[in-house]
Amino acid sequence: MNRLLIASLDRFGPLRDSVRDDLMACSQETQRFEPGQVIAPAEARSRLRLLARGLAVKQQALPDGGRQIFGVATPGDLIDLGGLYAGLDHEVLALGVCEVRMTTAHELRTMMRAHPNLLAALCRAILTEAQRQRDWMVGLGRRTALARAANLLCEVYWRQTALRLAQDGRCDFPAVQADIADALGLSVVHVHRVLRTLRDDGLATLRNGVLKIDDWEGLTRLGGFDPERLRPQRETLDIASRAASG
Amino acid sequence: MNRLLIASLDRFGPLRDSVRDDLMACSQETQRFEPGQVIAPAEARSRLRLLARGLAVKQQALPDGGRQIFGVATPGDLIDLGGLYAGLDHEVLALGVCEVRMTTAHELRTMMRAHPNLLAALCRAILTEAQRQRDWMVGLGRRTALARAANLLCEVYWRQTALRLAQDGRCDFPAVQADIADALGLSVVHVHRVLRTLRDDGLATLRNGVLKIDDWEGLTRLGGFDPERLRPQRETLDIASRAASG
DNA sequence: CGTTCGGTTGATCATCGTCAAGCAGTGTGG
DNA sequence: CCACACTGCTTGACGATGATCAACCGAACG
């Protein structure tokens, strides 16, 4: 069923019924990805890939062998919007086990031609993503390593909270320290030091792919995290129950 | 005349004739901004503000009094696309003297409803901007201060070259060191040191708002600058002659 | 003539990267 | 069952990058 896709797009502005119908009727192949697998390669054209389960990162490999991570995707996110009109300029990688649903490029194209309303919704989604990128930039440019890490953990936790994927101050975050390093623009060694500080100060613990928040108030203050800035994510998608039923 | 607007949007994918006609017919107020003035305030709704002359920056003021600059806008750029569906989440500031043309929010809305083709073009423009943001992020996260500065100068020069706004290895760049600092995530003092190094090494000179490229090859190598990544900017807009005639 | 703004310089210090080494867990092949 | 390799985490020592503080200079401006 395609209810998740509809719910995901609906967050960004209400869809017309005709669009809903077409979205509900379009084919949706489900695919599973193991940790580290490429969900959407660079140069991919959009197929309305929807992350249904798991966490993923948008990243770009750099000529020097390194990479930069641009953001984290949580269930309910469309992860290949960058490939709507041209090839994606970055790739999307599975952090943990991921489940992705996608339609065909052809069906997407047909629906986009038929429904300006769909195009508008996608446009809003893209703008939201661009805003999130700017927030990420603020972190890279203007925050210390400690604040950047705190902010990242806040974001990952908060977004999963909105999806009811967090419980008792815990949530999945299947990232190794090298992932965090490439997300925050730090060395692996320094990431370790920073995570250790957060742990020692009783703020948060990241271990074995599980993030545990020990002092939410302190963590948000340290990271300068403002939940309001994640607004479009605020409306609950309730991935847990939908995934079970869909 | 609105030819500049049409040419600007046309870069991102051809416009239908009906869209061109409407764009040509829509009102376009011209406004002049002095250096440091806010062209588009945060929370602004899009009015299809088109930078016709001058350089501007997208930036966000931070709670701690600082700011982060997300990118530079050159003539021909639409600078308030972020405000298409919701208020802009950042502001746009004039670096030098700027001339901006804008239609009304109402006319824009009407045209967008009438022409899915226009919406598609805007969508492509937004995606292009998002890609540029990711490149900016790579710089912030993964390059040294020297490389970041070199890259920025390359970008500013290259984009103005494509617009025929550069001559003899020179172009305008009316930014003070504090602007560069907030763009690159550095302190003002360090920006000075970095610019001095670039000057002493015979790569580029930035002085009194004029950027002079002394060794393009060396500068691009140091900054890891890849002109190909600015593709949609490549097609010449020829701002110089258009501005004179429009 | 004093003030402000932007650029310049030096001294000092904190942050963070690099190098190197060790350890635990896991999987693999003998 | 044991060596071995491999990956990810941990720690310490050291050094480089870049921030902070402080002061001075020149030009523009009232």
Task: Produce a short descriptive summary.
The structure is a homodimer of 246-residue chains. Chain A is built from nine helices and ten strands.
Structure description:
Chain A is an alpha+beta fold and 246 residues long. Chain A has two domains: 3-137, Jelly Rolls; 144-223, Winged helix-like DNA-binding domain superfamily/Winged helix DNA-binding domain (Arc Repressor Mutant, subunit A). Chain A is built from nine helices and ten strands. In chain A, strands 2-6-4-5 form a four-stranded antiparallel beta sheet. A three-stranded antiparallel beta sheet of chain A has the order 1-7-3, with no helix packed on it. In chain A, a hairpin with a 5-residue loop joins strand 4 and strand 5. Chain A starts with a helix and ends with a helix. Residues 242-246 of chain A have low confidence and may be disordered. Chain A binds chain B through residues 12-13, 60, 62-63, 66, 68, 70, 81-82, 84-86, 89-90, 112-113, 116, 119-120, 122-124, 126-127, 129-131, 133-134, 136-138, 140-142, 184-185, 224, and chain B through 12-13, 60, 62-63, 66, 68, 70, 81-82, 84-86, 89-90, 113, 116, 119-120, 122-124, 126-127, 129-131, 133-134, 136-138, 140-142, 184-185, 224. The structure holds a DNA duplex (30 and 30 nucleotides).
